TrEMBL record:
InterPro entries: AAA+_ATPase, ABC_transporter-like_ATP-bd, ABC_transporter-like_CS, ABC_transporter_ATP-bind, P-loop_NTPase. This is NitT/TauT family transport system ATP-binding protein. The lineage of its organism: Bacteria, Pseudomonadati, Pseudomonadota, Alphaproteobacteria, Hyphomicrobiales. CDD domains: ABC_NrtD_SsuB_transporters. It comes from Labrys wisconsinensis. PROSITE patterns: ABC_TRANSPORTER_1, ABC_TRANSPORTER_2. Residues 10-242 form the ABC transporter domain. PANTHER family: ALIPHATIC SULFONATES IMPORT ATP-BINDING PROTEIN SSUB (PTHR42788:SF13), TAURINE IMPORT ATP-BINDING PROTEIN-RELATED (PTHR42788). GO terms for molecular function: ATP binding. Keywords: ATP-binding, Nucleotide-binding, Transport. The keyword Nucleotide-binding applies. Belongs to the ABC transporter superfamily. SUPFAM superfamilies: P-loop containing nucleoside triphosphate hydrolases.
Length: 269
C-alpha cells in the first residue's frame, strides 16, 4: 500500500463477468471494468438498460464472483456477504407481516442487539425519517414514499460503511423522488457512508453524486467518469436550475446517448 493514502471503500480492478445464457451461450456482462469508490464518496452509475449495472453491485455484495479481475471492499477481496454493506433496491425488502417498527428493528436484532436497545434505536431512526406516527402501521398501509423511508431507516440503522442502491426511487412519483433525494443526502452526510447508486436517470445521478460513471452498451465497461463539482449541501429541488447542472446534463447526456442508441439499435436488430 502506498504510504498515507487511505484504502478505497470499493475497488473493481479489470473485472470481467460472464454468464451462461439459457441456450448455453456465454454472455459477457462486464468487460475489463475498473471503478474506485473512495471512503465517504457518492458514486452514481448510469448506462443503457441491460448493460451490466446491477452486475457491478452484485460483485460488491459477494452475490456474484468475477470471472476475471479483482473486487475489493475496504482493501480486502470480497468473500461472501459483508455486514458493513447495506442495500436499497427498487423493490423494497419490507416484511409485509411486520409493523414498521418491527421491520426497522429486524437488522439490529439479527445482529444480536438487546431488544430494548434495538427498539430504542429503531424509534430514533423512524423519527429521523419522519415516520414516528406510523410505527405500528403495516407496509401495505403506507405510500410508496413512506415505504422507501422505512427502507432507508432499515438500512441506515445498521450503520453501513458502504451503501449499494439499485434504482431505489424509480417507482416513485417525481415530487416524492425529490423528497427522497433530500432525505438520502441528509442521511448520507451524517453517516459518511460510501455509496454506489445505479440509476437510469441522469439528472438524479448528477444531483446526488460526487462522480458519475457512464457505462458502455453491454458488455459494460467504463466509458467516462465525470466528477460533479456542485457545492454541498445540495438542495435537489433547486439544483437542476443551476447553470453548471445544466452544463453537466448536456455534456454527459451527449456521451450516454451514443450508448443508449447502440443498445436500442442492437435490441431492434
Ligand atoms: N444470473 C444471470 N444469468 C445469466 N445472465 C445474466 C444474469 N444476471 C445478469 N445477466 C445478464 O447480464 C446482462 C447485464 O445485466 P444487469 O442486470 O447487470 O444489467 P443492468 O444494466 O442492471 O440492467 P437494467 O438497466 O435493465 O436494470 C444482461 O444481459 C442480463 O441478461
Amino acid at each position: 500500500m502506498s504510504e498515507g493514502k487511505p484504502i478505497p471503500a470499493i475497488e473493481l480492478i479489470n473485472v470481467s463477468r460472464r454468464f451462461l445464457s439459457p441456450t448455453g451461450k456465454s454472455l459477457t456482462a462486464l468487460r475489463d471494468f475498473s471503478m474506485t469508490v473512495e471512503r465517504g464518496e457518492f458514486v452514481a452509475v448510469v448506462g443503457p438498460t441491460g448493460c451490466g449495472k446491477s452486475t457491478t453491485l452484485n460483485l460488491v455484495t459477494g452475490l456474484a464472483r468475477p470471472s476475471a479481475g479483482e473486487v475489493r471492499v475496504m482493501g480486502e477481496p470480497v468473500n461472501g456477504i459483508d455486514p458493513r454493506v447495506g442495500f436499497v433496491f427498487q423493490t423494497d425488502a419490507l416484511f409485509p407481516w411486520r409493523s414498521v417498527v418491527d421491520n426497522v428493528v429486524a437488522g439490529p436484532r439479527f445482529r444480536g442487539r438487546p431488544k430494548a436497545q434495538a427498539y430504542a434505536d429503531a424509534r430514533d431512526w423512524l423519527a429521523r425519517v419522519g415516520l414516528s406516527r406510523f410505527e405500528t402501521h403495516y407496509p401495505h398501509q403506507l405510500s410508496g414514499g413512506m415505504r422507501k423511508r422505512v427502507a432507508l431507516a432499515q438500512t441506515f440503522i445498521n450503520g453501513p460503511e458502504i451503501l449499494l442502491m439499485d434504482e431505489p426511487f424509480s417507482a416513485l412519483d417525481v415530487q416524492t423522488r425529490v423528497l427522497m433525494h433530500e432525505e438520502l443526502l441528509r442521511l448520507w452526510s451524517q453517516a459518511k457512508a460510501s455509496v454506489v447508486f445505479v440509476t437510469h436517470d441522469l439528472e438524479e445521478a448528477i444531483a446526488l453524486a460526487d462522480k458519475v460513471y457512464v457505462l458502455t452498451a453491454g458488455p459494460a465497461t467504463v466509458k467516462s467518469v465525470y466528477p460533479i463539482d456542485l457545492p454541498r449541501p445540495r438542495v435537489v429541488a433547486d439544483i437542476r436550475y443551476d447553470q453548471r447542472f445544466i452544463d453537466y446534463s448536456r455534456t454527459i447526456w451527449d456521451d450516454l446517448k451514443e450508448e443508449v442508441q447502440t443498445s436500442y439499435a442492437r435490441a431492434a436488430a
